[in-house]
Design brief:
alpha+beta, Fructose-1,6-Bisphosphatase, Chain A, domain 1, D-Maltodextrin-Binding Protein, domain 2, 2 domains, 8-stranded mixed sheet, 8 helices, about 20% strand, binds 6-O-phosphono-alpha-D-fructofuranose
Length: about 350
């Protein structure tokens, strides 16, 4: 088959839908609406240095973190667009305490959980940031969506993806088992996402590791032993690995997805208020776990469990995350479960 040039994401979504005769087009519609929101956010992020939108909004979010103005903008953009799209019945956002309803009469059959602008502490210093999203099918019977529709295992996601606002704006998403992971790059001159990374497969081994080494003195022994192992000089096994840590999950994850690598945010003794680590299950770990699994990688917690098997109990539940190249994660699992 000749390589198709200039495939837009809308074309990819429709081609994928055609493979599912039972599809109603609602998931395609949902993704297309989300893509419009992403284009609006991308334009704002890329202008942030010029518009008066840098800096903090003076508010703090449910996580107790300072909310940057762009966070607010991204959150409002996605909410405003999706509450009237007719494809979802309820939303959850990293920026909001509780569930977010959709407009009456616009209830659809899916749910949406999202981190509107992850890594936002990097906004003012021009480091890549991103939007992460996770889509589930509604499971309760009433028209209105409920929290139960959101609190589903990651393995039940029908779509997961992220938009990274970096040297270019890229959309990376998957619509489930066997559907693959595809990357699209935004051409701002025409306002279209074009297929640039078809069927992404993450290398099964790598030489990069991502962890915040500033917390070394707070690590539990399993973390310390694993990191010590991969930093030991042993040319035969390709050690030491190189450290790559940006402090923006989307940026660290994207680099590792493309080049290979392992990202760790395990439990530590530093964040006593976050005994399960810092990252959230619903709209960070679970969508990234679905993407990496579809790309041939793995995602586990620091007790060896599969991220995709965890049944969430609350919207902003945190979870320890070890994610990336399959052989690296499998080796790390031996350190964390021995
Ligand atoms: P730390 C950004 O605030 C974030 O939620 C993720 O994007 C990132 O991976 C992590 O926190 C960085 O946390 O503790 O290393 O600064």
């Amino acid at each position: 088959m000749p390589k198709r040039l200039g495939v837009t994401v809308s074309r990819q979504i429709m081609d994928s839908q055609r493979l599912h005769p039972e599809a109603t087009g609602d998931l395609s519609g949902l993704l297309n609406e989300l893509i419009v929101a992403a284009k609006i956010i991308s334009a704002e992020v890329n202008m942030a240095g010029l518009a008066d939108i840098l800096g903090q909004s003076g508010k703090t979010n449910v996580q107790g973190e300072a909310v940057q103005k762009l966070d607010d903008f991204a959150n409002a953009t996605i909410k405003r667009r999706m509450e009237q799209c007719g494809y979802i019945c309820i939303m959850a956002s990293e920026e909001e305490d509780g569930i977010i309803p959709v407009l009456d009469g616009y209830e659809g059959k899916y749910t949406l959980a999202f981190d509107p602008l992850d890594g936002s502490s990097n906004i003012d210093v021009n480091v890549s940031i991103g939007t992460i999203f996770s889509v589930h099918r509604k499971i309760t019977v009433d028209v209105k969506g409920t929290e139960a529709d959101l609190l589903q295992k990651g393995s039940q996601q029908v779509a997961a993806g992220y938009i990274i606002y970096g040297s270019s704006t890229m959309l990376v998403y998957t619509t489930g088992v066997g559907e693959g992971v595809h990357g699209f790059t935004l051409d701002p001159s025409v306002g279209e996402f074009f297929l640039s990374h078809p069927d992404i497969r993450t290398p099964d081994r790598s030489k990069y590791y991502s962890i915040n080494e500033a917390y070394t003195n707070y690590w539990y022994d399993s973390t310390r032993n694993y990191i010590e192992y991969i930093k030991t000089v042993d040319k035969e096994s390709g050690r030491p690995y190189s450290l790559r840590y940006i402090g923006s999950l989307v940026a660290d994850f994207h680099r590792n997805l493309i080049s290979g690598g392992i990202f760790l945010y395990p439990r530590d003794k530093k964040n006593t208020d976050k005994p399960e680590g810092k990252l959230r299950l619903l709209y960070e770990a679970a969508p990234m776990a679905m993407i990496v699994r579809e790309a041939g990688g793995l995602a586990i917690t620091d007790d060896g469990g599969d991220i995709l098997d965890i049944k969430p109990t609350s919207l902003h539940q945190r979870v320890p995350l070890i994610i990336g190249s399959s052989k690296d994660v499998e080796l790390a699992k031996r350190f964390f479960t021995s």
